[in-house]
Write a structure and sequence with these properties.
The chain is built from 13 helices and 16 strands. With about 450 residues, it is α/β, with parallel strands linked by helices. The protein has a single domain, classed as 3-Layer(aba) Sandwich (Alkaline Phosphatase, subunit A). The strands form 5 sheets. Strands 6-5-7-1-8-11-4-12 form an 8-stranded mixed β-sheet, sandwiched between helices. A two-stranded antiparallel ribbon has the order 2-3. Strands 9-10 form a two-stranded antiparallel sheet. The chain is globular, with a radius of gyration of 22 Å. It starts with 11 loop residues before the first helix and ends in a 12-residue tail after the last strand. The relative contact order is 0.20.
């Protein structure tokens, strides 16, 4: 259902076919990430319990039809859907999200969110980094980060925890989710596979079910043979430097360890819970994200598309997009709460912008950055709140506007990162972690 192209001609399949992080010019797999993190001295840092799940609705969610409906606006604005009451008195959402309505007490809505760009590439970068791109930004390049993505900053400041990567992207890596000048030590591990696929496995970690233990041992023996050709020269070069083969062995051990396999193995979940999340890419991605933060991953970014509803907005939302969001996100909030993980897991849900308040001639809505809603829950956020408001047609914020800078500051503050700190580019230029943003106090 997600093969429909964005308005720029790219499809979800185009991004998946780019492959894992190596296809984005990073050349990364698990051994490479482990080696880079060791060089950076990130291991052994003090651990923090907080994690982030960033659900990115790629293409732009129509929040006027979901979380900020305008039933009193003219027909050409308000659309076809009705509001329903949530489990928080006075807050209504779309009728096609009944399960999310019953979880409203676990998340809050920023209804006065806005920024000044309505083009996919720059808006992507702005939301995913907290920095609007400068002159020379090229959205067709992958990765296209001028600034580090949230997950890369979290990786740099907090480091990996346990035997799992600090930062994971699934089911693919968005081009604006890279580390920029922070380098390969802060790049994500990319699952690069659809968690809803019948034969889903995670490259480099979970071997296919048909791969017998004897074949794994054969691979181990092959590594031993290759090592014999390297050990002498490596000892002579530097007795104190860990070799590439060390990291290959570490990656192999992760692949065969029960702990790592449990973290990435969706088959360990009951069919009933998988059904509750939904047997679709978004639902199974949310379930995988919950498993990963439980295992110690600091940041999981889910890139789900295609929400670019220029045509047949209401039909597409009603039949395809909203049922998936309703089951996947509502179960994620409930499941985290039931497991005692919601207070330690910040969940952010947004697209790169919203959709035009006025319906176009194709029963669709176009790009609209000047006003939209962002969902934030868990991680110490007060649930069941509405921050700010849009005007009567959802064209502009009516009160207290917030943007990507404030969202970034809120995320980092909740994860225990000093928002006043600066990084330095390879040229020695200081760059603040947060670009003049402030935490959204109404949420805290």
């Amino acid at each position: 259902m997600n093969a429909k192209p964005f308005c720029n001609g790219l499809t979800r399949r185009d991004f998946i076919q780019l492959g894992a992080a190596g296809a984005f010019g990073l050349g990364l797999n698990l051994p490479t990430i482990l080696q880079a993190q060791e060089r950076a001295g990130q291991r052994g840092q003090p651990t923090r319990e907080m994690s982030l799940i960033f659900l990115y609705l790629h293409g732009g969610l129509s929040t006027i039809d979901t979380f900020d409906m305008k039933p009193d606006a003219p027909q050409e604005f308000r659309g076809e859907f009705r509001q329903i009451q949530t489990n928080v008195n006075g807050i209504q959402v779309c009728e096609h999200m009944p399960r999310l309505a019953r979880q409203m007490d676990k998340f809050s809505l920023i209804r006065s969110f806005r920024h000044n760009n309505s083009d996919h590439g720059p808006a992507d970068h702005y939301i995913l980094t907290g920095y609007f791109p400068q002159a020379g930004f090229n959205s067709s390049v992958s990765p296209n980060n001028q600034r580090p993505a949230h997950g890369s900053i979290i990786t740099r400041k907090l480091g990996p925890r346990g035997g799992v990567p600090a930062y994971v992207c699934l089911p693919k890596m968005h081009p604006s989710c890279g580390p920029a000048y922070l380098g390969s030590t802060c790049a994500p591990f990319v699952i690069d596979a659809d968690p809803n696929a019948p034969n889903f496995t995670v490259p480099d970690i979970v071997p296919p079910p048909a791969l017998a233990t004897s074949r794994l041992e054969s691979r181990r023996e092959l590594l031993r043979q290759l090592d014999r050709y390297q050990q002498s020269a490596e000892r002579q070069a530097n007795q104190h430097v860990r070799t590439v083969s060390d990291f290959q062995h570490e990656a192999f051990n992760l692949m065969v360890s029960p702990e790592a396999r449990r973290a990435f193995d969706l088959q360990a979940e009951t069919p009933r819970l998988r059904d509750e999340y939904g047997r679709h890419t978004l639902g199974q991605s949310c379930l995988m994200a919950r498993r990963l933060v439980e295992a110690g991953v600091r940041c999981v970014t889910i890139d789900h598309s295609n929400w670019d509803t220029h045509d047949n907005n209401f039909l597409t939302l009603r039949r395809e997009l909203l049922p998936a969001l309703d089951s996947g996100l509502s179960t994620l909030f409930r499941d985290l709460a039931d497991r005692g993980r919601l207070q330690n897991t910040l969940v952010v849900v947004t697209g790169e912008f919203g959709r035009t308040p006025r319906i176009n001639n194709n029963a669709g809505r176009d790009h609209w950055g000047p006003a939209f809603t962002v969902v934030v829950g868990g991680g110490g956020i007060q649930g069941g709140r509405v921050v700010g408001a849009s005007d009567r047609r959802a064209e502009r914020p009516a009160t207290d506007p917030h943007g990507p800078e404030n969202l970034a500051a809120t995320i980092y503050q909740l994860l225990g990162i000093d928002v006043t700190e600066e990084f330095y580019t390879p040229e020695g230029r200081p760059v603040p972690i947060v670009n003049n943003g402030r935490a959204i106090r109404e949420l805290l």
